[in-house]
Amino acid sequence: MSFDSLGLRADLLRAVATQRYGRPTPIQSQAIPVILAGHDLLAGAQTGTGKTAAFVLPLLQLLAEKGHPQRHPRALILTPTRELAAQIGERVHAYGIHLSLRSTVIFGGVGMQPQINQLRRGVDILVATPGRLLDHAGQHTLDLSRIEILVLDEADRMLDMGFIHDVRRIINLLPERRQNLLFSATYSDDMRRFSDNLLQRPKLIEVARRNTAAETVIQTAYPVDKARKRDLLAHLFHREDWQQVLVFTRTKAGANRLAEHLGREGIAATAIHGNKSQAARTRALDEFKRGAVRALVATDIAARGLDIAQLPQVVNFELPNVAEDYVHRIGRTGRAGAGGQALSLVSHDEMVLLKGIQRLLGRQITLNPVVGFEPSLTPPPNDPEPGERRRGSHVAASAAPRRATPSPRTGQGSRRDGQRSRTASPRKPT
Questions:
Q1: What topology is assigned to 3-206 in CATH?
Q2: Backbone dihedral angles phi then psi of residue 261, each to the nearest 5 degrees
Q3: Are 31 and 43 in contact (CB under 8 A)?
Q4: In b/e form, how buried is each residue of 66-101, taking b as 16+ CB within 10 angstroms?
């Protein structure tokens, strides 16, 4: 199947050809005709398989066919993070380069006035994070009464991050009659329940088993004492001559410390997390993409949406507390059918988290000790797993399903991250 066979108009096909895409991916070939036919859609696919083009291309066509650009937005794309919003905005511009449609991106962490000015000039397609969108709605700088198409990208992530109340408030501002599209790399049960109340007779597309990683990603775990993790990571950088590695930590402070340690080891590194200004986050990502730094050390703010072409390695310096986040972390490599490596440094107290990840994936992840860094701690025979000894322990909570409350130390409650805890109180206008 080719893009020509999907019913896309010539000016969109020209834009696709400029991007040098080959054949459409499975999610694209299945979703584009459904969206063009006007159906609501619940779609899931592994990260890196082309979800963005799957909804942006038909969205552009539907708006272009319905008339000339209007003053108020006709399509709204909601995303959980600033970085993902920015990247979708870039794709909207690239695919719509030959159309007269106008688009803009709004998110927090930057001034509102330039966004207000852009909205006043007129916008057909609006890409936004929930918090900043509600800021504009509250100040009456944005009219959502003409929205014809609503897209929730990474929908389950928005629910997990505590955006459910914001999303519902936004939905209440939209016209009742519209086309709704929910896209996500994973299908959570919470998202399915939410979608039941939002979608009207939706089509369901699931191009891969839920919560799976791309088959092109080689996954390995290195057991190591927690105190020696930083030294092991530096050792791997030098031994393997890594030039571009995305490294995940659980906390913002931990990301800063690790980036500083790598720098002292002669490895150019920078950190990206929610305590960084938007300008600093953008600069760090740009330096990483163009090779000015070899390591980008990130919290889970980077687990969704970052599209780095041909990223060869992802390292979990610390395993995530939520198993599904592992899928999204390692999905930054092995994109668009390319190969990649996902390496995890696993200390003894993280073994229960590793087992939770393996249960989610339905497969084992090979444990390969590195010579000279073999762990000194090993679990005694038949010793109960950490967290099973004391009900309610920290480890038990961290290994629990998604309903577990994120630890404040993760920084996922930070407004500046665009991320808030599932149990966070309703958002206060700022």
A1: Rossmann fold (3.40.50)
A2: -65, -45
A3: yes
A4: eeeebeebbbbbbbbbbbbbbbbbebbbebbeebeb
Q: Which helix (H) or strand (E) holds 65?
A: helix 51-65
User: CB 257: neighbour CB atoms within 10 A?
Assistant: 15
Question: Is the pTM of the predicted complex or chain greater than 0.85?
Answer: no
Cα 288 to chain centroid, rounded: 18
Which residues neighbour 326 within 8 Å (Cβ) at sequence distance 6 or greater? 316, 319, 320, 357, 360
Reported as half-sphere exposure (CB side, CA atoms, 13 A), residue 370 has a value of 22
The rounded distance, in Å, linking the Cα atoms of 425 and 77 is 24
Query: Chunked in runs of 10, what are the mean pLDDT values of the chain (430 residues)?
Result: 91 91 89 96 77 94 82 93 88 94 92 93 95 94 95 82 86 95 76 82 78 71 95 95 93 94 95 83 86 91 64 92 84 68 94 92 89 76 39 37 40 40 39
125 neighbors 23 (Cβ within 8 angstroms) = no
Domain ranges of the chain: 3-206, 217-405
One fold for 3-206 and 217-405? yes
The per-residue DSSP string of 8-22 comes to: --HHHHHHHHHTT--
Distance, CA of 261 to CA of 246 (rounded, Å): 15
Beta pairing, strands 179-184 & 149-153: parallel
DSSP string, 149-191: EEEEETHHHHHHTT-HHHHHHHHHTS-SS-EEEEEESS--HHH
How is domain 217-405 classified at the CATH fold level? Rossmann fold (3.40.50)
Distance CA 367, CA 355 (A): 12
